[in-house]
Design a protein that fits this description.
The longest helix has 29 residues, at 102-130. With 249 residues, the protein is an alpha/beta fold. The relative contact order is 0.15. The chain has a seven-stranded parallel β-sheet, sandwiched between helices. The protein has helices at residues 19-29, 41-49, 65-79, 102-130, 141-145, 153-173, 199-207, 217-228; strands spanning 7-11, 33-38, 56-59, 84-87, 133-138, 178-185, 239-242. The protein has one domain: Rossmann fold (3-Layer(aba) Sandwich). Helix content is 45%, strand content 15%. Helix 4 (102-130) links the parallel strand 4 (84-87) and strand 5 (133-138). The termini are far apart. It binds nicotinamide-adenine-dinucleotide. Residues 11-12, 14-15, 18-20, 38-39, 60-63, 88-92, 111, 115, 138, 140, 185, 187-188, 190-193 line the site of nicotinamide-adenine-dinucleotide (NAD).
């Protein structure tokens, strides 16, 4: 039980096929009490209940600073602490540079970057008082490679900014005992791909992956567990590629 008695918040975890839910489930399997934050209250509650009755699911738009603070306060009231934050909420868009609108840019940047900024700022005071915490940000190999598969340039830029936010938080928060890292997945077979790529397209992408397949949400959840647990106690400020070798540098 790597996360016994820990409390973990996972944003964007309401889809049972998604990375966030897989991470929340993995954490719970290791003894954590998990809190899923997502846009819809009922979907969040259902996703938490699918893991077990002791877990919480709350509505929170991570773009809204006050909503993030209120959600974290509810977690503190209900669970008494917060040990782990996974900044996983994200929106993917594949529009090319000249086809993207200001609204597209705002949405993609705000959910990934402002969302992680808001949520991290909401949990850090609590983590600081206990001199302990782990923050995991969900980046993307699109940031490492400059996109090129599904994400448009604004998506790649958002993930690059998020990964750099993780590094900056790692540097600043290390004296408080708080670690911050990012995971950079390659293509993961989740709802995010729906309408963007068909099965034949997925097979073509898989052929270009050295390990010969797309990632599963479970592959990414395992990396989140590593970065959230004591197994990575001496690791902070890293971008962990989980891409089957798609980005070997
Ligand atoms: P997903 O669509 O299942 O998950 C994204 C979740 O974020 C959804 O549940 C959505 O409701 C939630 N969300 C969107 N806006 C939000 C907001 N403002 N506040 C709170 N929640 C919000 O897809 P996924 O593939 O599980 O994606 C999870 C993360 O992984 C995303 O950050 C995504 O960019 C990243 N990622 C995915 C892939 C992939 O190939 N699927 C690859 C690299 C990185």
């Amino acid at each position: 039980m790597q996360l016994k008695d820990k409390v973990a918040i996972v944003t964007g975890g309401a889809s049972l096929r998604g990375i966030g839910w897989a991470a929340a489930k993995r954490f719970a399997d290791e003894g954590a009490r998990v809190v899923i934050l997502d846009l819809d209250a009922e979907a969040s509650a259902r996703a938490a209940a699918a893991i077990g009755p002791q877990h919480l699911g709350l509505a929170c738009d991570v773009r809204d600073e006050a909503a993030c603070r209120a959600a974290v306060q509810r977690v503190i009231d209900a669970c008494g602490r917060v040990d782990i934050l996974v900044n996983n909420a994200g929106v993917s868009q594949s529009q090319r540079l000249m086809d993207s609108t200001q609204a597209d840019y705002d949405l993609v940047m705000d959910v990934s970057v402002r969302g992680a900024f808001n949520m991290s700022r909401a949990v850090v005071p609590h983590m600081r008082t206990r001199k302990s915490g782990a923050i995991v940000c969900m980046g993307s190999v699109a940031a490492q490679r400059g996109g090129g598969i599904l994400g448009g340039p604004h998506y790649s830029a958002a993930k690059g900014a998020l990964q750099t936010l993780a590094k900056a938080m790692a540097r600043e928060l290390a004296p408080d005992g708080i670690r911050a890292n990012a995971v950079a997945p390659g293509m993961v077979d989740t709802e995010l791909l729906v309408g963007k790529i068909d099965e034949a397209g997925k097979r073509r992408v898989a052929e270009g992956v050295p390990l010969g397949r797309l990632a599963t949400a479970q592959d990414i959840a395992n990396a989140c567990l590593f970065l959230a647990s004591g197994q990575s106690a001496y690791i902070t400020g890293v971008i962990l590629d989980v891409s089957g070798g798609l980005h070997i540098h």
